[in-house]
């Protein structure tokens, strides 16, 4: 029995050791963590790769490698020729597209990615204000970490604040093929040699056709999900509050308010198929954090008045954003999904919805309740 146990243990150790990777092998490969794609000359593609490498001879952990080709695979192969390492794409966490590339259409690039079993469909997607190369080739001394991991961290950590859209390859393709909604992706640009998320790209199909501000993204998120613990700043007319102001000089005609959304939800329905009339009802539970003009808040009438003014302002913002998107013929709100759910619209095509979208009418109803005031709950 003891001899059998020893043989079993020996066999186990043999199998374990045989599965270990040669310690030298890791020094021969470069692990791609971020890939950028840009338009190059003569209808070629340029790829910029942020690569982890573990050579003892190099003091840098990350290396930036570029390559060009007529196809994604061709550009990747060209990049590998410029590297002493065998490039491994299995750890790509972010795919960054230059603006010109995004405006031309990124679906062909994604088709290549989905066919490569080594590439995760959970990697995030983003757009550069200029080129992907400009963002990814930042000098390392200007960054607290690898630039690709930095961008991935911004999306990962701040998308929960409902200011940054977080879309994976899987998410983008699902929305693209499910007719009735369009995608949005974060846009990064350089400020003082550091990448910042400054706006978001709105897509028509797979082509970027415009930009949205942080405030506009919040409106879309309120339509798409439950929003909590999100800061919102609004500028309201001062005139309705004049009776409730502290005795001090007031030069402005507007008042700035900062609220925190404790909970924001929306529901949408199609009221009239023939008239293309929709209704979106939004409920906002707010905490007033700050106001700029010294409004005396103790009076219950003031609270009701602020709620009324916030309601009007938010409904106006929804309408303005809808008009902007209708001119772009893009639908990140997803009204096409509700249109398609009607029996008459079940066979809706992408081109048909582009024709219908500019003619839809939406009644926005925003119900506002201010629960309390102050910095803490």
Strand-residue proportion? 25-35%
User: How many individual β-strands?
Assistant: 13
Measured as a percent range, the helix fraction is 25-40%
pLDDT averaged residue by residue: 84
Estimated radius of gyration: 26 Å
Biggest sheet record: 9 strands, mixed
Series of H and E elements: HEEEHEEHHEHHHEEEHEEEHHHE
Structure description:
The model is unreliable at 2-24 (pLDDT under 50). It contains 11 helices and 13 strands. The longest helix is centred in the last third of the chain and has 29 residues, at 300-328. The chain has helices at 2-18, 72-81, 99-104, 107-115, 132-136, 147-158, 169-177, 214-224, 300-328, 335-341, 350-356; strands at residues 29-39, 45-53, 62-69, 86-88, 94-97, 124-128, 184-191, 194-204, 207-212, 230-237, 254-272, 277-291, 361-373. 32% of the residues lie in helices and 32% in strands. Strands 1, 2, 3, 4, 5, 6, 7, 8 and 9 form a 9-stranded mixed sheet that branches. Strands 10-11-12-13 form a 4-stranded mixed sheet. The chain is an alpha/beta fold and 377 residues long.
Record keyword descriptors for this entry:
single chain, alpha/beta, 4-stranded mixed beta sheet, 11 helices, 13 strands, globular, disordered N terminus
């Amino acid at each position: 029995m003891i001899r059998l146990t020893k043989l079993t243990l020996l066999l186990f150790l043999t199998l374990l050791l045989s599965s270990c990777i040669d310690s030298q092998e890791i020094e021969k490969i470069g692990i791609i963590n971020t890939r950028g794609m840009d338009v190059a000359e003569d209808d070629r593609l340029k790829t910029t790769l942020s690569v982890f490498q573990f050579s003892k001879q190099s003091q840098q952990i990350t290396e930036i490698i570029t390559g060009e080709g007529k196809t994604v695979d061709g550009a990747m192969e060209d990049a590998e020729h410029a590297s002493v390492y065998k490039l491994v794409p299995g750890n790509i966490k972010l795919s960054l597209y230059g603006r010109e590339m995004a405006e031309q259409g990124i679906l062909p690039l994604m088709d290549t990615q989905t066919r490569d079993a080594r590439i995760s469909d959970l990697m995030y997607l983003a757009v550069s204000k200029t080129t992907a190369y400009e963002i990814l080739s930042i000098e390392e001394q200007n960054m607290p970490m690898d630039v690709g991991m930095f961008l991935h961290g911004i999306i990962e950590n701040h998308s929960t604040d409902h200011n940054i859209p977080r879309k994976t390859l899987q998410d983008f393709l699902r929305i693209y093929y499910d007719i009735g909604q369009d995608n949005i992706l974060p846009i990064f640009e350089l400020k003082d040699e550091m990448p910042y998320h400054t706006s978001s790209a709105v897509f028509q199909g797979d082509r970027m056709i415009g930009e949205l501000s942080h405030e506009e993204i919040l409106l879309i998120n309120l339509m798409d999900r439950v929003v909590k613990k999100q800061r919102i700043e609004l500028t309201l007319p001062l005139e309705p509050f004049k009776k409730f102001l502290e005795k001090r000089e007031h030069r402005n005609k507007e008042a700035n308010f900062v609220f925190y959304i404790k909970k924001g939800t929306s529901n949408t329905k199609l009221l009239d198929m023939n008239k293309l009339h929709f209704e979106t009802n939004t409920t906002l539970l707010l905490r007033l954090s700050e106001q700029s003009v010294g409004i005396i808040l103790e009076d219950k009438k003031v609270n009701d008045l602020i709620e009324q003014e916030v309601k009007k302002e938010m409904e106006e913002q929804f309408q303005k954003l809808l008009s902007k998107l209708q001119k772009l013929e893009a639908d990140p709100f997803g009204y096409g999904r509700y249109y398609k759910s009607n029996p008459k619209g079940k066979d809706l095509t992408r081109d048909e919805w582009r024709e219908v979208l500019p003619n839809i009418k939406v009644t926005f109803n925003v119900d506002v309740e201010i629960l309390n005031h102050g910095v803490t709950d």
